[in-house]
Amino acid sequence: MSLPLRSIVELLGGELHGEPELLIEGLAPLESAGPGQLSFLANPKYESQLANSNAACVIVSATHREVALERGACIVSDQPYLYFARVTQLWKRRLGGARAPGVHPSAVIEDGAWVDPTARVGPLCVVERGARIGAGTELRSRVTVGEDCIIGQRCLLHPGVVIGADGFGFASDAGRWEKIEQLGAVRVGDDVEIGANTCIDRGALQDTLIEDGVKLDNLIQIGHNVRIGRHSALAGCVGVAGSAVIGAHCTIGGGAIVLGHLSLADHVTISAASVVTRSITRPGHYSGFFPIDDNALWEKNAVSLKQLYRLRERIRALEKAPTR
Prior knowledge:
The chain is of the alpha/beta class.
């Protein structure tokens, strides 16, 4: 497959500098792009790679226009990374990447479930009774959508996703555990993408809710009764405990943990591997972890941390003591 630069700009916009009929035969990163490929520069720290890139054309911001022109053709865009994302979508459509709607013969659609005629249900999927799959949604292989769960329109669920497993609810009875039946479901909004082997538990009494535009990476655990606001994005291996509420437009880095019954305001960013132990009421970037170190030094520092409260009280006492 190949496309002239002219066609790309006509479809996606941008300011083209270079030969309009130059053929693009593929997409690649700056450092490895060849003479027939299109690349992009979004992060200024990679500017040094721009001059030496062999790409046929590079998508850049106006800030990097002159540097890009010194090496060859470029497309100038206000948001180079977003522009490149749209190029990848265009490329996949031209390659025939869109899959035809329908239900694979090996999938199981239980009585009482409903799948929109424009949706696609892949191999070995299970859609249980009362579940609903919206228009244009695709379930890749081995996806399970539990009883009464709802998936909105234009969603993409990658292999192994489980929607509507029982939440982790048990009551103690003299040393043994009594199961609390999970009577809610899961509601997933429109334009949601859920990565491979991610699990979203059904609610105990009310539904677990994933709002429109949310993006979840692989291997994420979402506990029962959690609510994730519009257009939030969670990276791989994040764990969100039961009844936590995450606002709109939040981002949570890989391996981070949000404890149960906490709330995050809109536009909150959590660094990777952080543990959120209190509610966050203001937008901003938050981190909470003990930096990795040589094990012996880490153990010494950990012991010191345990003594911080006692040391603080001693300092307070000294500050209050009368001076001679």
